[in-house]
Amino acid sequence: MVPKTRDLELRLERTEQQLRLFQKISRFMVRDMSLREVLQGVVSLVVEFTQCDSCLVYLLDGEEMVLCASNTPHPSTIGKIRLRLAEGLTGWVARERRLLAISREAYKDVRFKSFSDLPEDSFEAFLSAPVIARNRVVGVINVQHRLPHQHTGSEMEVLTTVGEQIGCVLVLARMSRAALEAANHVELVLSAGPVEMKS
Q: Is residue 13 scored above 90 in pLDDT?
């Protein structure tokens, strides 16, 4: 009974950590912050939750993915590192709209693309999820560990949800303060017409 109780306690603790992570990200979404500040805040929270060595956020710019946020100082690479949707593990995740988890030797994967400016290219474990906004892929979030790491279902679920939350942040960021204040929210809902509820 004792090991079972301890296992339940650990699972409950992890679930509470997940909830706190999502709550903190939700608070970023309602604050008056720049998009860059929100992305950096999200990256820091993901690093804290996953205990990873690197977290990178790429956003779509036309047909390319651009590095927009990182937990490690990459002043020379933010906004400069770009890859096409046909390139690298990140491009694959964006193109396929699928989570990707590699527990060791990610750099040996045939889809891998190396960047001399990124020390993360030598890291072993790689977990990546698409950033989704209004059912479209608009970016990718990557989590990497220096050493081999078996990703848990919880980590995969969290990264998928964080990708969806970042997508919502991007949609909100596109609205100017004036547009947000002037919006008639009832009209926005009602102008869309009646919603059919399926049983």
A: no
